[in-house]
Automatic annotation (TrEMBL):
Domain of life: Bacteria
Organism annotation: Streptomyces iranensis
Name listed for the protein in its UniProt record: Helix-turn-helix domain protein
SMART domains listed in its UniProt record: HTH_XRE
Residue span(s) of domain HTH cro/C1-type: 37-84
GO molecular function: DNA binding
Pfam families referenced in this protein's UniProt entry, alphabetically: HTH_31 (PF13560), MLTR_LBD (PF17765)
Length: 270
């Protein structure tokens, strides 16, 4: 584990403890608290480790926390499954290649597959939400699905061009961090996070929370200028043949108004 990864682990622990209220773990709230969330010594006590050892983890002095300690920290910090997986990835990662060319190449088979779905909006994105390929209906549904467009940039910098409810920003940032895993120095991710941190205060605030995961499925509402409001179900699927890529698919309930709206869009997209 290199120094950069150690720092990422410390940043993550610090951010997550600041999000836990004392009352969440059975501690009394006091007016004299000078820091948000839990103090370091409180986390150490809850996890059953010494304060000095925990401080070493946040500062990067201790390099090899055991699985038992990681599980104890996850419980102390009230981490869910995705956040716990991310904690383990940061603590136990091994050096990996920093850039994979296949992340930006969609297999001809996958491209042919989504193009064969004239009634189902579908697109392929990278781990940094760069759209690589999209079928005609996905592009008719929103210009944000045009290949070459980055969805994170769109939702934070051009929100009026992608009117989606519920607000996708927090979900996108959590998913972005989860997809990035421990490779926080990946060039594509570093470029995007650096740009967005400079240009968007809301992105900067959400990224600092260290939320991990994001939704892999759910129901969304999209406002379309020609066919009105559509209520669609969204599913994100990892692409096993191209780690870092995801297939995103929208669908509508049969015989619903949204299903009819998709049919009208499909006709115009032909």
């Amino acid at each position: 584990m290199d120094d950069r990864t150690i720092n990422l682990l410390g940043d993550y622990l610090r951010a997550r403890r600041e999000l836990v209220r004392p009352a969440d773990v059975g501690l009394p709230e006091t007016a004299r608290r000078r820091v948000p969330g839990l103090r370091r010594e409180e986390v150490a006590t809850l996890a059953g480790i010494s304060v000095d050892y925990y401080l070493g983890l946040e500062q990067g002095r201790d390099r090899r926390p055991s699985a038992e300690i990681l599980w104890a920290l996850a419980q102390a910090l009230r981490l869910d499954e995705s956040a716990t997986t991310h904690l383990f990835a940061l603590a136990n990662s091994v050096p990996r290649s920093r850039r994979h060319a296949h992340r930006h190449r969609v297999s001809p088979t996958l491209a042919r597959l989504i193009d064969s779905w004239p009634a189902t909006p579908a697109f392929v994105q990278t781990h940094t939400f760069l759209v690589l390929a999209a079928n005609p209906l996905a592009q008719a549904l929103s210009p944000a699905h045009t290949p070459g467009t980055n969805l994170v940039r769109t939702v934070f910098l051009e929100p009026d061009s992608f009117l989606v409810e519920p607000d996708p920003r927090q979900d996108f940032v959590a998913c972005l961090r989860g997809l990035a895993g421990a490779e926080a120095d990946d060039p594509d991710l570093a470029e995007l996070v650096g740009e967005m941190s400079m240009r968007s205060e809301s992105f900067r605030r959400l990224w600092a929370r260290h939320d991990v995961g994001g939704r892999t499925h759910g129901r969304v509402t999209i406002a379309h200028p020609r066919v009105g409001t559509l209520t669609l179900d969204l599913e994100r699927f990892p692409v096993p043949s191209a780690p870092g890529q995801q297939l995103v698919v929208y669908s509508a309930e049969a015989d619903s108004r949204s299903h009819e709206a998709l049919r009208l869009l499909a006709e115009s997209a032909d």
